[in-house]
Amino acid sequence: MAENGMFLWNSWYAAAWAHELIDGKMVARTILEQPIVFYRGESGKVVALDDRCCHRAAPLSMGRIEGDDIRCMYHGMKFDSSGKCIQIPGQEMIPPKLGVKGYPIVERYGLIFIWMGDATAADTNLVVDYPPLDDPKWRGLPGYMHYKANWLLIVDNLSDFAHLAFVHTNTLGGSEEYAYKTKPVAVERLDDGFRVERWHMDADPPPYHRKVIANKTDKIDRRNIGRMMVPGIFLLDSMFAPAGQGAEKGVQVPGTRQYRNAQFMTPETRSSTHFFWNYLHDFDIDNPNITLSLRHSLEEGFNEDKAIIEAQQKVFDADPDYQMLAIRADAALSHFRWALGQRLAAEKTARTASGAQAAAS
Ligand code: FES
Ligand SMILES: [Fe+2]
User: Fold this and answer.
1) What CATH number is associated with residue 333?
2) In whole angstroms, what is the distance from residue 107 CA to residue 109 CA?
3) What is the b/e burial string over 80-111, where b = at least 16 CB atoms within 10 angstroms of the residue's CB?
4) Which of 110, 125, 140 delimits the end of a domain?
5) Consecutive 10-residue averages of pLDDT for the chain (361 residues)
6) Which range of residues forms the domain containing residue 214?
7) Are 153 and 290 in a shared domain?
8) Separation of 301 CA from ligand 2 center, angstroms?
9) Total structural domains in the chain?
10) Which atom of ligand 1 is nearest to the CA of 76?
11) Residues whose beta carbon lies within 6 Å of some atom of ligand 1
């Protein structure tokens, strides 16, 4: 394990959508700079193993699934779903410890989550809880994008609603006014991240929303509640209520439409990221045109982010000494970096302690 202090190891990471593994497909994907192969065994169980044969380093993702096991197609060694070697063609004796590393997996919400750190600490209760992802009242389409940028730059981007106005004026934001006229109600600083709520009253529907509704010019009261969690999970609940009818006081205004948005930033390397997302709607859920339109609008929006974030990464690469400067709008993202820093430090302390213990025994 490349314990470089950069990544949080003891955490669940979204690693793949379940649909990527249908029909016996193997996915070779690097997570926290570790090449891993994912597949679904015959029993239905999802397996994640180091994508490197312990014999002579052939990628297991070039191998063959046999039941729940996998065979390296170089010299034929076979590994079970835990990574243990169970067959060496032409050799009777198999050293009991021979094998490759296997990783704990949880499948939930159509996502495959992987635990990269100490397997004995892999508590399945720690997998993020976001029921809309498998609630039939909500409809969406799973998405994936690859970013050539450190995951924290994407976290920063999502932590900051101010950019909606400038980066996404014609897609997700709607107007530059959004940056001036809206204020976060409060940034709630939490141990594992933050929660922020933002209202924009009596506004025009933003372009992506306008595309999927009939009453395109009716003013709306817009509320966004964002929740960011370590290591890089963003949940956004959006509500668009007919304006001026008390939505901000908790009135259930007829004609309100809502969205639920989950985004998972999983480091591939220190300078590239897997981005899994789903944007769900609660209205006209049986109209696939709406689901598709939203999917395309969001993708268009994310591509606007991607362009600027990947360009940022290049600037950082060119001058590693460059120091960012915080403005007031950065309160949430600064807190997130602090919260992650606390976790990283705790993990480092635990590692040093267990290392010292091992050395003493
Ligand atoms: S490299 Fe896998 S069996 Fe030889
Ligand atoms: Fe954005």
Assistant:
1) 3.90.380.10
2) 7
3) bbbbbbeebeeeeeeeeebbbebbbbbbbbeb
4) 125
5) 77 98 97 98 98 98 98 98 98 96 97 97 96 96 97 92 78 75 80 93 93 95 94 96 96 97 97 97 97 95 94 94 87 93 93 79 66
6) 131-342
7) yes
8) 6
9) 2
10) 3
11) 53, 55-56, 58, 72, 74-77
